[in-house]
Design goal:
The complex is a heterodimer of chains A (114) and B (114). Helices cover 0% and strands 52% of the residues of chain A. Chain A is mainly beta and 114 residues long. In chain A, strands 2, 4, 5, 6, 9, 10 and 11 form a seven-stranded mixed sheet that branches. In chain A, strand 4 and strand 5 (43-51) form a beta hairpin. Chain A is globular, with a radius of gyration of 13 Å. Chain B is mainly beta. Chain B is built from no helices and eleven strands. Chain B starts with a strand and ends with a strand. The mean pLDDT of chain B is 93. At the A-B interface, strand 5, strand 9 and strand 10 of A face strand 5 and strand 9 of B.
Chain lengths: 114, 114
């Protein structure tokens, strides 16, 4: 049981390049989230997905797109990276029933845009 | 909308001393509150949570927190700090929306001196 996994762990992009951050969970959770973490600001919600095929914007969605093609995977895409998107990106999932309160986080992707 | 304020971006204690990390929240409904810990270059790990019931909540690694509605606080404590407690700590409140995302404080970095 790996929990929430993210790839890649580190990435350096040039301004204008695109990339997709991958996230997968093996806990059969319906809800999945993408957050970004910036110094002194905690984590902020980028996008949320309640189930396969559904997504919802969070607090800071500009410059990002997401895709939830199946229950396990929730990807985050940067179409044209900007230096302001330099951050640490965390994916999280949340279950239903007894684990409804807890979000489980992946190890993060550290992205630098130059 | 909910919000979280963590007082003190950096806290330094001696090994064996009391750890007190402060968290105040704002919520228009009974809150669900969480403390997460982040070790260097790792993801977030849940320390403890308050949902309903007992206001003194015990978590992992000897940490506990007390929910005080009258003070809108959820401070994290540990009687005796250990070197391994050095990390960043985040307080979070769950949104009162269907997506149940977390709103995080800005974090407190705990340093433990030998």
């Amino acid at each position: 049981n790996a929990g929430v996994t993210q790839t890649p762990k580190f990435q350096v992009l040039k301004t204008g390049q695109s990339m997709t951050l991958q996230c997968a969970q093996d806990m059969n959770h319906n809800s999945m989230y993408w957050y970004r973490q910036d110094p002194g600001m905690g984590l902020r919600l980028i996008y949320y997905s309640a189930s396969e095929g559904t997504t919802d914007k969070g607090e800071v969605p500009n410059g990002y797109n997401v895709s939830r093609l199946n229950k396990r995977e929730f990807s985050l895409r940067l179409e044209s990276a900007a230096p302001s998107q330099t951050s640490v990106y965390f994916c999280a999932s949340r279950g239903d029933g007894g684990s409804i309160y807890e979000q489980y986080f992946g190890p993060g992707t550290r992205l630098t845009v130059t | 909308a909910q919000s979280v304020t963590q007082l003190g971006s950096h806290v330094s204690v001696s090994e064996g001393a009391l750890v007190l990390l402060r968290c105040n929240y704002s919520s228009s409904v009974p809150p669900y509150l969480f403390w997460y810990v982040q070790y260097p270059n790792q993801g977030l790990q849940l320390l403890l949570k308050y949902t309903t019931g007992a206001t003194l909540v015990k978590g992992i690694n000897g940490f506990e927190a007390e929910f005080k509605k009258s003070e809108t606080s959820f401070h994290l404590t540990k009687p005796s700090a250990h070197m391994s407690d050095a990390a960043e700590y985040f307080c979070a409140v769950r949104e009162d929306t269907g997506r149940r995302a977390l709103t995080f404080g800005s974090g407190t970095r705990l340093q433990v001196q030998p």
